[in-house]
């Protein structure tokens, strides 16, 4: 963990840089620890996804939020798929919901 703290100080600029540092750290670990780290990362990703689905976006109707929860019913596989699903969701919203969703982004 100390090596990870050192690698993340100073904090990487942006999600991709952060993800790269985590991957470098994981790859430097012995095999048993590497698997434990990856399992932990997957658990955290699922936890984030569950928390994401619990929150409402201010100004978006209940119907709009129901559509989002349906689209995101399974965790996306990476940031690009997340963005793609969000774009799909926003494109199908009413004008008022679309404005609220865009303002939230």
Automatic annotation (TrEMBL):
Q: Which UniProt keywords apply?
A: Coiled coil
Keyword Coiled coil: yes or no? yes
Q: Which residues form a coiled coil?
A: 15-42
- This chain belongs to which protein, by name? Uncharacterized protein
Lineage, uppermost ranks: Eukaryota, Metazoa, Ecdysozoa, Nematoda, Chromadorea
């Amino acid at each position: 963990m100390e090596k990870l703290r050192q690698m993340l100080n100073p904090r990487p600029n942006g999600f991709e840089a952060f993800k790269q540092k985590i991957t470098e750290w994981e790859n430097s670990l012995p095999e048993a620890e590497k698997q434990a780290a990856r399992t932990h990362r997957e658990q955290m990703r699922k936890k984030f996804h569950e928390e994401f689905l619990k929150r409402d976006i201010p100004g978006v109707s209940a119907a709009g939020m129901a559509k989002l929860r349906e689209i995101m019913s399974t965790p996306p596989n990476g940031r690009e798929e997340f963005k793609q699903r969000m774009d799909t969701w926003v494109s199908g919203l009413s004008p008022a919901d679309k404005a609220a969703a865009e303002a939230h982004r």
